[in-house]
Specification:
- This protein is α/β, with parallel strands linked by helices.
- 35% of the residues lie in helices and 19% in strands.
- It has eleven helices and nine strands.
- It has a seven-stranded mixed sheet with strand order 5-4-3-6-7-9-8, with helices on both faces. It has a two-stranded antiparallel ribbon with strand order 1-2.
- The longest helix is centred in the first third of the chain and has 15 residues.
- The termini are far apart.
- The model has no long low-confidence stretch (mean pLDDT 95).
- It catalyses: L-glutaminyl-[peptide chain release factor] + S-adenosyl-L-methionine = N(5)-methyl-L-glutaminyl-[peptide chain release factor] + S-adenosyl-L-homocysteine + H(+).
Length: 277
């Protein structure tokens, strides 16, 4: 891969020489050279010098070897905002935007929100950015993840309280108007954990090292005492877990239990309300 990008090669030639997925290649070339997509097109006659060729080749090689683009360039867009992304956190994905959309609809004025297992802070920051009247708290057991999340809140001018916590540990005596979570839900041993970008992401953010439902059970079981009456619990889960999650919610006494589909038509988020009485 490296020896296919050489000094003297023009941007036009490089673009006509697909070494990777075209979108990935464009993003990485722009990042390596510090130019926009427009400049990549309009400067097609620009020839790479030796240093530029080395930088481009190095990034393309990293992606060719499997490293996620978000980690290579250190950022990912989510809900219209720019997030720092490091190997300490799960890469924000478009599927999770559904959870934010549902949360914003169900969050009352000046509501209190709890985001459990915040990772990069994508969910909490997106909610706080769109609802500055809300009081947003985000928890994570990883200090490294919390550091990334705090920088993302600052980066996007969002007010979020971050707490180091093993699930509800740090908020035992508090109550919220909405609880949201994108917890680890891939079952231990699932083949997807050894494929694609997931190979590089923190395993503790992907799998519960059990049946894929243990974190969801913990959240469902602990939420009623920390939810205001009539308030919602919303959780992202795996593509084949909606039936199981609805069953857990119903068994725990939640009302209006339902699931919502993502843009691909997959039931991606399920939730229910704490009874009003």
């Amino acid at each position: 891969m490296k020896n296919q990008v050489t000094a003297g090669m023009t941007l036009g030639v490089l673009q006509r020489k697909p070494l990777l997925d075209p979108v990935d290649q464009r993003i990485l070339v722009c990042h390596a050279l510090g130019i926009s997509r427009t400049a990549l097109i309009t400067q097609s006659d620009r020839a790479l010098n030796a240093d530029e060729a080395e930088r481009v080749a190095t990034l393309l090689q990293r992606r060719h070897d499997g490293e996620p683009v978000a980690y290579i360039i250190g950022q990912r867009e989510f809900f219209g905002l720019d997030f720092e992304t490091t190997p300490a956190v799960l890469i924000p994905r478009p599927d999770t935007e559904l959870l934010v959309e549902l949360a914003l609809v169900r969050l009352p004025p000046r509501g209190r929100v709890l985001d459990m297992g915040t990772g990069s802070g994508a969910i909490a920051v997106a909610i706080a950015h769109n609802r500055p009247d809300a009081s947003v708290t985000a928890l994570d057991v990883s200090q490294e993840a919390l550091a990334v999340a705090a920088r993302n809140a600052l980066r996007n001018k969002a007010k979020v309280r971050f707490l180091h916590s093993d699930w509800y540990g740090a908020v035992e005596s508090e109550q919220f108007d909405l609880i949201v979570s994108n917890p680890p839900y891939i079952a231990d041993g699932d083949r997807h954990l050894s494929e694609g970008d997931l190979r590089y992401e923190p395993s503790g953010a992907l799998t519960d090292f059990a049946d894929g439902l243990s974190a969801l059970r913990t959240i469902i079981g602990g939420a009623p005492s920390r939810l205001a009456p009539g308030s919602w619990l919303l959780m992202e889960h795996g593509y084949d877990q909606a039936d199981a999650v609805r069953g857990l919610l119903s068994a725990a006494g939640y009302t209006e239990v339902q699931s919502w589909q993502d843009l691909a038509g997959i039931e991606r988020v399920s939730g229910g309300r704490r009874p009003a009485s």
